[in-house]
Design goal:
Oligomer: single chain
Number of strands: 16
Largest sheet: 6 strands, mixed
CATH superfamily of the domain at 172-337: OmpA-like domain
Distance between the termini: 21 Å
Strand content: 15-25%
Length: 547
């Protein structure tokens, strides 16, 4: 803000007060213009401070060589004021250690800060000065140099970002009911005793129970036949096909049901996957060597040859592994309709012990009040030692700005992850320790943590860095950072919702672009949605030219 003041030269006033010499008075009138440059033109909160850069230019002949001048900036607002540092200047002939302003004129520059206080949006900055000549004080009229304080930074969501842990509750559970029959070496005939095997009986019992439970529905049925990986690939492919055919014919005997039209028949051939799994579970002395052969060679013939060369172990494989791979499986794919959310709520109220950890976490997530959420998460902790429940309890505490309570929950998590580190950063942020918070956010490295790091930069007044860190997350904080960094297009693009605060920020963007009709339209939307926020606009310096 550049102000040209037509004032009686300061030192001329000093001289007139000290002497009636007409020639001296005439000499002091030679320079009359005092220029004051205040940056920014409208004060703004940056970080925790309201910074001011002040430049005062004294023209040639203005400053009396034997005068001193004390200048004190004062921020005045709503019945209160903050008094800044006093700067003292001296003429060329004053024997002291203040900044010298020569008689030929010059510019003095000062930087100082005021602290944020309620009401500073209506503040004005004035300079209060006293001149001294031969020990006598001469009062100088107060000079107003700036109006208002921009507080746009305070629109940021400063409580931190964290994402509650999700449950793994499934509305529909996918299950299988399965039985199998075994075949003799090189045979595709199903023996009668196989149709009465334990595996088949268990499948039949499961199917009977499923038929009696309306929550179950059949999603698919299939027969899968295999051959053990011995005797050649082509031969075993044909043998597997024959076993698939015999198993298909035995479907109704095994399941008690007529084979459905959509029964899937699969012939796998040589069962190398089953072989690998069996070897992994075995106690064979050379099992690591066998597994290495399987990983090195993909050709079935080479695999079989290499394994046959291990004569001692091959005998054991032939006796204990291959027989288990000569089989056909009868599989029924099932969908189980899990408890609905309404049923979960009813169970939580009347039979909570029926719920497993995932059910408890889901019903807690949909609970209507924070108090009920807390009860259910605490139950999940006590019953299942649930770290996810502890984390979500910490999130609830942070929602209510209770960082100490959140810290206690987080400290009890047995397997902390990056989300926990980020939440610990939010704890530090809510406690006011932005440096510690930033360190934790950097360690966490999650998308939430990056957004929080951008928030710290925003609150510290590092707007360019904040805009970079908040670019991916977008939203109101990103918009505010970009406004304050001077990129209005990026600020506009960061806003996605039509909520009251986003509309308020859009009004600020429009005001800075000089678009009066857009300012009005956005503020009209704010007034409809949030009367308190709209009231803020009446004193917001951003809209000083649009009232």
């Amino acid at each position: 803000m550049k102000n040209i003041f037509k004032l009686l030269a300061l030192c001329a006033a000093v001289a007139l007060a000290a002497s009636c010499s007409k020639s001296r008075a005439e000499q002091m009138k030679l320079a009359e213009n005092l220029m004051i440059d205040c940056t920014p033109e409208v004060l703004a909160l940056i970080g925790d401070q309201i910074p001011v850069d002040l430049a005062v230019t004294y023209p040639d002949g203005y400053f009396h060589p034997k005068a001193t001048l004390e200048v004190t900036p004062v921020l005045v607002y709503q019945g209160d004021e903050q008094v800044g540092p006093t700067f003292t200047y001296q003429g060329e002939k004053v024997l002291d250690n203040y900044k010298v302003v020569p008689n030929s004129g010059g510019t003095v520059r000062e930087h100082f800060n005021f602290a944020y206080d309620e009401g500073v949006e209506k503040a004005y900055l004035e300079l209060r000065s006293v001149a001294y000549y031969k020990g006598r004080p001469i009062a100088i009229p107060n000079i107003k140099v700036a109006d208002g304080t921009i507080l746009t930074q305070q629109l940021a969501k400063a409580s931190g970002t964290y994402t509650p842990k999700k449950d793994n509750y499934q509305a529909v559970l996918h299950e299988q009911a399965e039985g199998q029959v075994m075949y003799d070496y090189n045979s595709s005939v199903i023996k009668n005793n196989e149709l009465r095997s334990t595996s088949v009986k268990e499948l039949q019992a499961a199917l009977e129970a499923i038929a009696a439970d309306p929550r179950y529905s059949v999603a698919g049925t299939k027969v899968v036949a295999y051959a053990s990986p011995e005797g050649g690939q082509a031969y075993n492919a044909k043998l597997s096909d024959q076993r698939a055919s015999s198993a298909q014919k035995a479907w109704s005997q095994v399941t008690g049901e007529k084979a459905p039209d959509n029964l899937e028949i699969r012939s796998v051939g040589q069962d190398w996957e089953g072989f690998k799994e069996a070897i992994e579970k075995s106690n064979l002395e050379d099992k690591d060597l066998i597994l290495r052969v399987l990983s090195m060679y993909s050709d079935p013939a080479v695999r079989e040859s290499e394994i046959r060369n291990m004569s001692q172990v091959y005998t054991e494989i032939n006796k204990n592994v291959f027989p288990e791979l000569r089989r056909a499986r009868f599989i029924t794919e099932l969908d189980y309709q899990n408890y609905s959310e309404e049923e979960l709520v009813a169970l939580a109220n009347n039979a909570i012990d029926v719920l497993d950890e995932e059910g408890l976490l889901r019903v807690a997530s949909i609970a209507e009040t924070p108090a009920r959420k807390t009860q259910l998460y605490e139950r999940a902790v006590s019953r299942f030692d649930s770290d996810r429940a502890r984390f979500n309890l910490a999130a609830l505490a942070l929602d209510n700005s209770r960082p100490d309570a959140a810290a206690r929950y987080l400290s009890q998590i047995k397997k902390p992850d990056a989300d926990v580190t980020n939440a610990q950063g939010v704890v530090a942020l809510q406690r006011g320790d932005r440096k510690a918070a930033a360190d934790l956010f950097r360690r966490a490295g999650t998308p939430d943590a990056k957004a929080n790091l951008g928030l710290v930069e925003l609150l510290d007044g590092n707007y360019d860095a904040a805009a970079r860190d908040l670019k991916e997350s977008g939203g109101m904080n990103a918009a505010i950072a970009n406004i304050l960094a001077g990129d209005l297009d990026a600020a506009d693009a960061a806003l996605t919702c039509k909520c009251a605060k986003s509309e308020y920020i859009r009004a600020i963007i429009a005001a800075r672009r000089g678009r009066a009709s857009e300012v009005k339209a956005h503020l009209d939307n704010v007034e409809k949605a949030d009367a308190t926020l709209f009231q803020r606009s009446k004193t917001d310096v951003e809209f000083a030219n649009y009232r």
